[in-house]
């Protein structure tokens, strides 16, 4: 089976991009937007993207599973960013030179991060210190501790005592059906995943409710696109607007050499979300068969899903506990 890439760094767009001086469709108050040209990115061509595996780009927040305190742990994405003075200096340099190449950073230019913080894979180091990317950020991770209110929704999908996580994945029996499982964290080691749900990114998938929030972890690359369009600007635009399978935020291609390439609707000037999503419309089944004793004192999400064990739903967004 093909080894899927891990999302540790920014992913390149499948097309070369340009900056337009108009209000961003993706970020509020951003006075510019990055849009795709019709020229395929040389990085994608070098990675032989036509033979790559096309998967759904999910709209959530990136997570990582690796060891902490001697056991598999969920880690949240936390990029180390420059302080206000360094950010001001950086922007001034960019404006003067129309580029960020050649700008010099000092280690004291960056905000402090929690002590267990680790830099993401492939972050370059100089004199023993991590070097920021072209945007002035140092991608990294921080462990999700159960009492940290900042990461309460991350915490809701893991049970460290039992050693499991709530995972949404295609069923082994039918890839068009999603299954919700309590997967061993040990089985997710060194994977990156997307946390999606009620309180993440405006909940484009319509999961849960305010009274009974629902969140899942989805391994990157696990939701395949069955009939992906060719890597062609016009055909991709048409697919996103006309195909039922195109009701996704974007595509991430996993290339044979490990390179990840992406496209999302904002690159093409298309809205997201735009009506019902492909993921939320898929049928789902709950396979959380923990014993009553195992989850009796556990998180609400585990206990609620355990009570629904074996139930099938015609749509993922119909999985609710407050009916």
From TrEMBL:
InterPro entries in the record: RLIG1 (IPR041211)
Its EC number(s): 6.5.1.3
Assigned keywords, A-Z: ATP-binding, Ligase, Nucleotide-binding, RNA repair
Required cofactor names: Mg(2+); Mn(2+)
Reaction(s) catalysed by this chain's protein: ATP + (ribonucleotide)n-3'-hydroxyl + 5'-phospho-(ribonucleotide)m = (ribonucleotide)n+m + AMP + diphosphate
Record GO biological process: response to reactive oxygen species; RNA repair
Superkingdom per UniProt: Eukaryota
Molecular-function annotations in GO: ATP binding; RNA ligase (ATP) activity
Enzyme class, first EC level, given as a word: ligase
Entry function: Functions as an RNA ligase, in vitro. The ligation reaction entails three nucleotidyl transfer steps. In the first step, the RNA ligase reacts with ATP in the absence of nucleic acid to form a covalent ligase-AMP intermediate and release pyrophosphate. In step 2, the ligase-AMP binds to the nucleic acid and transfers the adenylate to the 5'-PO4 terminus to form an adenylylated intermediate. In step 3, the RNA ligase directs the attack of the 3'-OH on the 5'-phosphoanhydride linkage, resulting in a repaired 3'-5' phosphodiester and release of AMP.
Protein name in UniProt: RNA ligase 1
Top-level taxonomy: Eukaryota, Metazoa, Chordata, Craniata, Vertebrata
């Amino acid at each position: 089976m093909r080894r899927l890439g891990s999302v540790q760094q920014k992913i390149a767009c499948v097309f070369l991009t340009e900056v337009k001086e108009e209000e961003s469709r993706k970020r509020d108050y951003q006075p510019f937007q990055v849009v795709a040209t019709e020229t395929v990115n040389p990085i994608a061509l070098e990675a032989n993207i036509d033979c790559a595996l096309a998967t759904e780009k999910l709209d959530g927040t990136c997570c990582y599973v690796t060891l902490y305190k001697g056991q598999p742990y969920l880690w949240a994405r936390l990029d180390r960013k420059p302080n206000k003075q360094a950010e001001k200096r950086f922007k001034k340099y960019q404006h003067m030179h129309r580029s960020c190449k050649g700008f010099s950073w000092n280690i004291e230019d960056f905000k402090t991060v929690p002590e267990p913080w680790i830099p993401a894979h492939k972050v370059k180091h100089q004199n023993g210190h991590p070097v920021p990317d072209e945007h002035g950020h140092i991608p990294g991770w921080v462990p999700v501790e159960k009492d940290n209110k900042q990461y309460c929704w991350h915490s809701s999908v893991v049970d460290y005592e039992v050693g499991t996580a709530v995972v949404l994945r295609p069923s082994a029996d039918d890839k068009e059906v999603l299954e919700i499982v309590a997967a061993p964290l040990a089985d997710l080691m060194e994977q990156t995943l997307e946390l999606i749900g009620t309180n993440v990114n405006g909940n484009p998938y319509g999961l849960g409710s305010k009274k009974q929030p629902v969140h899942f972890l989805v391994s990157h690359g696990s939701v395949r696109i069955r009939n992906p369009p060719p890597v062609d600007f016009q055909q991709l635009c048409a697919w996103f607007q006309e195909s039922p399978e195109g009701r996704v935020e974007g595509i991430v291609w996993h290339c044979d050499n490990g390179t990840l390439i992406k496209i999302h609707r904002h690159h093409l000037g298309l809205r997201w979300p735009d009506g019902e999503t492909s993921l939320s419309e898929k049928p789902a089944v709950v396979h959380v068969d923990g014993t009553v004793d195992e989850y009796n004192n556990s998180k609400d999400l585990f206990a609620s899903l355990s009570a629904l064990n074996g139930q099938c739903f015609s749509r993922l967004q119909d999985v609710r506990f407050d009916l």
